[in-house]
Amino acid sequence: MVDVPAYFDVVDGGFEATRFAASQWSSAQVVGPAICGLMARQLELEHATDGFVPVRLTVDMFSAARFEHTTMPTVRVRDGKRIRVADVSVVQGGKVAARASVVLLQPSEQPPGQLWQREFQPQPPPLEIAPTTSLPQVPLFNTDANPGEWSSVPTAHENNARKRTWQNPIRVVTGEELSPFQRAALVGEATSMMTNWGDAGIGFINTDMTLALSRMPQAGQIGVEADSHISDRGMAVGVATLFDRAGAFGSCMVTSVSNAGRQISSAQLDAVMNARA
Predict the structure, then answer these.
(1) For domain 6-107+132-276, which CATH number applies: 2.40.160.210, 2.20.70.10, 2.40.70.10, 3.30.70.100?
(2) Which of 23, 85, 152, 158 would bridge with 29, disulfide CB 3.0–4.6 Å?
(3) What rounded mean pLDDT belongs to the chain?
């Protein structure tokens, strides 16, 4: 049996972060994807019932989550025939470190007519580079500067070109398989990295994430391709497209604040990738 790593253990009716959850910004801080994945898990378990499907997840990360015992209370805000809305909070030491809301819909038929779509769809790496697997993998990266080159070495992609990644993340909770929604939340948070990574590393840290899905991703790897980065006076907005081997299935947007005092270089990212490997 393969020992699959996870971000959290279930402890005393709540959760405690494992060593895999340490952030690149600070080893005392829980990394963004872990928080997003944990909130997605809790919202899905308690509210994606009776045929409702999550289509939008908005996460606010306004305080650094620490390596402390964590509880996840949720509340159902609205429960209609076609739309359901719920909220969840990340509570540590009696204080809220992050929160999220989810919109769930009842699937139905497509309306008639043709609509505009993105002319060029994101392309996953070839199967010989990224074979299909159910196990977590070290992320692969690619840029428009070298479109044929996919690798897990960030310094090979240190430029100001459009970036994309292809990932199969670790589990949210030890011993639990990832659901497609959890997988999308984990990988979707890479929108911050893909839209804020330039030729001098990463100097913006995201304060939120809004994930919107037209369908659930296929099992396995998910890609994130940057669509835009707009910034001024230390504030940034980044938007990306999420895709799998069947095509694009959603979008993600993050707002970010300058964290230049802790700028993450591509060499530092190399060390993180080596540790994950």
Answers:
(1) 2.40.160.210
(2) 23
(3) 94
